[in-house]
Amino acid sequence: MHWSINTLPMPPYVELGVHSLSGLLWTILLLFLWHCYRMGSDLPIPGHAHSGKLKSGSRRSMMSRSGICAGTRCSARSKLSRSDQISPFISMETGEDEEQGQGYLTPVLSHALFPAQASAEAKKLYAALQEYAKRYSWVGMGRIHKGLREQVRLNDHSAIQKPHLFFLPDVPSVPFFPRDAHRHDIEVLEANYSAILAEFQAVYQRGTDSKLGWTCLGPKGQAVFPLYSAGVCVAGNCRSCPCTYRTLLSLRTFISSNSLGSAGFWLLGPGATLGSSYGPTNTRLRCHLGLQTPPLCELVVGGEPQCWSEGHCLLVDDSFLHTISHKDAAPRVILSVDLWHPNVAAAERQALDYMFSPDL
């Protein structure tokens, strides 16, 4: 194409030399072509750069040449290798999960098989998680997915904290939690202590027979009067204790819709001892409201001993190794209520409700 100075819009009062202006334009054109050449050919030299990473200039040139990609959608796909096949229902919200090169959802995105040595229960939970993600999203499911895959390895090791059913990783925990972890719910339970105690005494005086709603769990007077059992309301028992039932409904973090949650009166007879055991999960805390608490009754969780106190609550993480020793002559009675662990996010609670639904 022939360039002419007459084709450029120039003010009529500017007088420039034709040869100098033409040389300036050619210089600018050559610099532009050289810049484009360097941007397009700035590829990593074999042996001098990691095979999976490009220089910053090369990354910019790749984005400029791939006009079909736009915004965050393109940048998210560029994080995956070409061999990764993404299912239509999997969300690409994996930015925070890919720190240090190994994300929570990497096995899902790469279609890695679930551990073959996993138990039937773990495989069932994994299938439920996938079904939940199809209906909703993978967003916020990273820790749950990681916990299901690592449950097998956790069960193979001795530990002071080892929930036998489901372990949610990266959850800060201690054997006994402070009151501030669930201040509202604790204050509600303690404010209704007198009414709850009166309703327990009424059902206890009728007897602890199974026909009256009680469930015997072992020798020496160990029994429970359930109000919620594995996420299901025991309607007859709740009708016998209306104030306690209304109190449970007023709690903000009560686990009332999945099989990890229960609530009821727990009775332990004199001389009873409960051996070392682990709870099923670390996603909950058990709140114990003391109703009748003899002095020689002790709870040891994770090596830390505590005693109950009448009218006051203990927040216990029973996924730690725990034992109970009751050496007093009077029975011990508590109202036990399962609450969500404060570090379990709302999206994770919704997914766990689905995975551990009593109907599944």
Automatic annotation (TrEMBL):
Coiled coil: none annotated. It holds the Pfam family Asp_Arg_Hydrox. The chain crosses the membrane at residues 16-34. InterPro entries: Asp/Arg/Pro-Hydrxlase (IPR007803), Asp/Asn_beta-hydroxylase (IPR051821), IPNS-like_sf (IPR027443). Residues 190-342 form the Aspartyl/asparaginy/proline hydroxylase domain. Belongs to the aspartyl/asparaginyl beta-hydroxylase family. Keywords: Dioxygenase, Membrane, Oxidoreductase, Transmembrane, Transmembrane helix. GO terms for cellular component: membrane. GO terms for molecular function: dioxygenase activity. It comes from Echeneis naucrates (Live sharksucker). This is Aspartate beta-hydroxylase domain-containing protein 2-like. It comes from the Eukaryota. The keyword Transmembrane helix applies. The gene is asphd1.
